[in-house]
Amino acid sequence: MKPHPGVRRAIKWTGAPASVLLLAAWIGSGWHAVSWTGSGGARWELSEGRLTFNHLQIPMPETYRGVRFGRTRRFTLQWDLWVRNPRYMWKIAVPLWLFPPPIFALTILAWRTDIIDRRRRRAGVCRGCGYERTGLPPHAPCPECNTPAPASAHSV
Question: Taking the complete model, does pTM exceed 0.70, yes or no?
Answer without folding.
Answer: no
